[in-house]
């Protein structure tokens, strides 16, 4: 039985020093939910609180409506998968997965049925009788996943489960983990510092920094409408530039340079001030007309599907621009270009608070 998980104003201290000071968060039943943030931001601390390994100094954690603060880890019915998957090397794949069920004194034929089913779900049935040492890292991680899921936990916790795998396998395994999670439907809390991995697997993501949740949303929401500059920088790549919002002829415009203004009248009526603007590299177009922000190509990097350019603007700033590769040669350093900005996809932030001016409107598509 999958559960909802709620943090209500939770406080965590280590040696009297608060690392989480009043955090609230709701994770839905059956959801694949990821805690994402830089090292030391408190992801593992939250995960360990769900598992019951960490004491809580204030507030409540609930599963459905039941307060869990004082419930021991053994009584929470939680499955866990970590980067060191701690498989028993002396047991076959089948016996690794059956281990927990045998401890629960479940009848033999039921164990067999459940193990067979789960091995099927994680697609390692053909290795049922193999010893783990003869399996690849990805296959071993599937054993660890099977071993957790077979117990039919209320909650599945995964802490950087893919970080020991090589780059290509990580990509394959994250697809697999997402599919398996959707198939079994267990509420899952996943910890990673890898934003691309978080985007690939999650239904929703909480972006954290210094023990504080910065934003909760679907991968698309946090990419397209980051709540603040931190999220904007942490998710994907972006250029942050400071520019003036002005009223010109009674229309709201953003002054990109002396010859290029973006009309934002249909997007914001936000007075006049200096703001921070986030423009993702793929939201620039190198113009073949005379319109656009003036710049000079500094260098190009050919990456197959895309070419990355560093472009120096007339005020000396460098911006990163991505264009799809075409059959032609990339533009050479020294080439003068004009950059157009896709105004539908830019984000505007208040200068001081660094909060998104547009957050909460219906403009994110
Ligand atoms: N047992 C502990 N005793 C004291 N301080 C701790 C302890 N565990 C974690 N911390 C501190 O709490 C903060 C959050 O740590 P946590 O391990 O939750 O971060 P994280 O986001 O999981 O980081 P990482 O990605 O590096 O694992 C850090 O400042 C860390 O130094």
TrEMBL record:
A molecular function GO annotation: ATP binding
Q: Which GO terms describe its cellular component?
A: ATP-binding cassette (ABC) transporter complex, substrate-binding subunit-containing
UniProt keyword Cell membrane, yes or no: yes
Q: Where is the ABC transporter domain?
A: 5-235
This protein's UniProt keywords: ATP-binding, Cell membrane, Membrane, Nucleotide-binding, Translocase, Transport
* SMART domains attached to this UniProt entry: AAA (SM00382)
Enumerate the SUPFAM superfamilies for this protein: MOP-like, P-loop containing nucleoside triphosphate hydrolases
* Highest rank taxon of the organism: Bacteria
PANTHER family from the UniProt entry: MALTODEXTRIN IMPORT ATP-BINDING PROTEIN MSMX, TREHALOSE IMPORT ATP-BINDING PROTEIN SUGC
List the protein's name: Fe(3+) ions import ATP-binding protein FbpC
């Amino acid at each position: 039985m999958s559960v909802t998980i709620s943090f209500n104003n939770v406080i965590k201290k280590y040696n009297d020093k608060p690392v989480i000071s009043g955090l609230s968060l709701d994770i839905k039943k059956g959801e694949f939910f990821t805690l994402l943030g830089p090292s030391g931001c408190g992801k593992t601390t939250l995960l360990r609180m769900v598992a019951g390994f960490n004491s809580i100094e204030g507030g409540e954690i609930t599963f459905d409506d039941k307060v869990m603060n004082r419930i021991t880890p053994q009584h929470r019915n939680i499955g866990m998968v970590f980067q060191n998957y701690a498989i028993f090397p002396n047991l076959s794949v089948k016996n690794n997965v059956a281990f927990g069920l045998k401890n629960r004194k479940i009848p033999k034929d039921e164990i067999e049925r459940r193990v067979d089913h789960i091995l099927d779900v994680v697609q390692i049935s053909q290795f049922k009788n193999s010893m783990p040492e003869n399996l690849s890292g990805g296959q071993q991680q599937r054993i660890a996943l099977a071993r957790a899921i077979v117990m039919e936990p209320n909650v599945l916790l995964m802490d950087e489960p893919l970080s020991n795998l090589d780059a290509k396998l990580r990509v394959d395994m994250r697809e697999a983990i997402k599919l398996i999670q959707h198939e079994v439907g267990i509420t899952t809390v996943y910890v990673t510092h890898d934003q691309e991995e978080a985007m690939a697997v999650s239904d929703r993501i909480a972006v954290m920094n210094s023990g504080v949740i910065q934003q909760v949303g679907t991968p698309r929401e946090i990419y397209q409408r980051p709540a603040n500059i931190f999220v904007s920088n942490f998710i994907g790549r972006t250029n942050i530039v400071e520019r003036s919002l002005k009223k010109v002829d009674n229309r709201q415009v953003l002054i990109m340079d002396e010859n290029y203004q973006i009309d934002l009248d249909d997007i914001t009526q936000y007075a006049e001030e200096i703001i921070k603007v986030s423009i993702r590299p793929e939201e620039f177009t190198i113009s073949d007309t005379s319109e656009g922000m003036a710049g000079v190509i500094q260098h190009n990097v050919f990456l197959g599907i895309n070419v990355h350019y560093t472009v120096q603007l007339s005020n000396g700033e460098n911006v990163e621009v991505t264009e799809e590769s075409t059959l032609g040669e990339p533009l050479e350093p020294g080439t003068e270009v004009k950059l157009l900005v896709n105004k539908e996809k830019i984000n505007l932030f208040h200068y001081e608070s660094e909060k998104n001016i547009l957050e909460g409107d219906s403009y994110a598509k």
